[in-house]
Specification:
The protein is α/β, with parallel strands linked by helices. The chain has one domain: Aldolase class I (TIM Barrel). The chain has twelve helices and ten strands. The protein has an eight-stranded parallel beta barrel with strand order 1-4-5-6-7-8-9-10, surrounded by four helices. A hairpin with a 2-residue loop joins strand 2 (about 15) and strand 3 (about 15-20). Helix 3 (about 80-90) packs parallel to helix 4, helix 10 (about 225-240) runs antiparallel to helix 12 (about 270-285) and helix 11 crosses helix 12 (about 270-285). The longest helix is centred in the C-terminal third of the chain and has 17 residues, at about 225-240. The N and C termini lie far apart (about 40 Å). The relative contact order is 0.13.
Length: about 290
């Protein structure tokens, strides 16, 4: 079953491409930290700025080195293009495709059904719906998710609406083998407590072992231990969203010694005041020394 701590991996760049040396370091980190899956080419991976050749190279490179599930972000606001990108990920050996609800177009619930139906019929790879209304301008409703969950290869949803009522309704209306994953690090424990199966995490880029432990404690009903780790993780996670994701997490990785390169335009470097707050959060967590 699709569950556990899945990292939404940040993409390291050089001045003219992908920094595969750093990428190998990151993959090695997650292979040894209890991470259940690596998501490539999501929002955190700056997917809108990555060209087609780079996409293929990143997927191939990771597939050869990964020791957990490989998930690839393939969603766009064109059904045709989404099908093409999902087929490519399937051909390159991805285990799952993460498919965002079409953005900007603002489809109705009927349009969302048609989009995911056409995709499900066109590919064999398991599909995870991604719902993040603050980014897309559209919210996929529980009844639509329930309808789509009847397709054999639509196996889960990454839920980042922040609406626990909606999340509970999705969990209660879908079959037990349909996985709801938290798309918000700060809500992972509450979401698991109502039946969620894990998280696709930004924070796991920084502290993969702790995120994995917290999720596993929660899934095994060791709530006291989960709560202690959740409280520790919460303040770090909150700081990783003080500016638009992935600006803070990529900045944090650079502070921790990873050669991540620059954020690709139109994203820009973190403001000086927020950099201080981020550094303080890393110090307080024990990841950096105060004199660093």
């Amino acid at each position: 079953m699709l569950e556990g701590s899945i990292v939404a991996l940040s993409t390291p760049f050089t001045d003219n491409g992908i920094n595969f040396s750093t990428m190998e370091r990151l993959i090695h980190l997650h292979n040894g930290s209890g991470t259940s899956g690596i998501l490539l080419l999501g929002t955190t991976g700056e997917s809108p700025t990555i060209n087609e050749d780079e996409r293929s190279e990143i997927i191939r490179f990771t597939k050869e080195r990964i020791k957990c599930s490989l998930i690839v972000g393939t969603g766009t606001n064109s059904t045709y293009k989404t099908i093409e990108m999902t087929k490519e990920a399937e051909d390159l050996g991805a285990d799952y495709a993460l498919v965002i609800t079409p953005y900007y177009n603002k489809p109705t619930q009927s349009g969302l059904k048609r989009h995911f139906e056409k995709l499900a019929r066109a590919v064999n790879i398991p599909i995870i719906i991604y719902n993040v209304p603050t980014r897309t301008g559209v919210n996929i409703l529980p009844e639509t998710v329930n309808y789509l969950s009847m397709f054999d290869n639509i196996v889960g949803i990454k839920e980042a609406s922040g609406n626990l009522r909606q999340i509970t309704e999705i969990i209660s209306s879908t079959e037990k083998d349909f996985s709801l994953l938290s798309g918000d690090d700060m809500l992972t424990l509450p979401i698991i407590s109502v039946g969620g199966r894990g998280v696709i995490s930004v924070t796991a880029n920084i502290v993969p072992e702790d995120v994995s432990k917290m999720v596993n404690y929660a899934l095994n009903n060791e709530l006291k231990a989960a709560k202690v780790l959740n409280e520790k993780l919460y303040y770090l996670s909150r700081t990783l969203f003080i500016e638009t994701n992935p600006i803070p997490v990529k900045t944090a990785l650079k502070m921790l010694g990873y050669n991540m390169g620059e954020l690709r335009s139109p994203l820009s470097e973190m403001g000086s005041e927020n950099r201080k707050k981020l550094k303080e959060a890393l110090i307080n967590y024990g990841l950096l020394s105060r004199g660093h």
